[in-house]
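Revision sheet: structure tokens.
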Amino acid sequence: MSGSTTRAGELHRRPWWARLAHAAWAYVRRAPGTYVWLAILLVTTQVIRHVDPLTADRILERRSTNLHHLQTSPVRVLITSALWIAGGGWPSYFLLYNVFHVPAERWLGTLRWISVAAAAHVGATYLSEGVLGWAIHRGLAPPRAVYTLDYGVSYALAGVVAVLTYLVVRPWRYLYAAGVLGFYALGVVQSRDYTSVGHFSAVLIGLACYPITRGRPGSFDPVATGRLLLRRLPWRRPG
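Predicted:
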């Protein structure tokens, strides 16, 4: 009997909760970067939840990638701003990270995945803040806007959502790309603020990361996946 067969037999004899824990750990360790990031976000979210509003504002202001901080301490705020959640709760980001970051990290590998996320985060931050700086210079925004709060993980997420275009097989790839571009373009049209510009910029940066995906061919077929899931559902024949 082979070693793998023996291990499978031992696992099968374990209690259900032990098998569940083993399966969960096997799932997590295939995308370690995503889950380390989620763990940090969980801690920082709890910090903000358990301090008074004034202290929370001070904490977030020091980590904001606003125009003032990008001029005085850009590296510090570009790193720390991606460790806090802006809008929405941690559970919603847990879901989004599993839907988008986990498959991206497994597909590209941790180094390539974090490179895409970092490029989107940094590039979209500078582009969006550049738009805000232009608005201040033209008198379309008050000078105080150089201290506007700008933090969170949504730019990195948008970039990863976009790069997953190349994981989807043709012709569904083009439909996915059109959906992503349309969704974020609609945000620009509706909001017309620097944040929506940042999200759309992050999507374009993610799409521009195509060279990183070379050697990692697209393999996700939504139609085939849907058919497989349907076959696995416990359908009962009538009568």
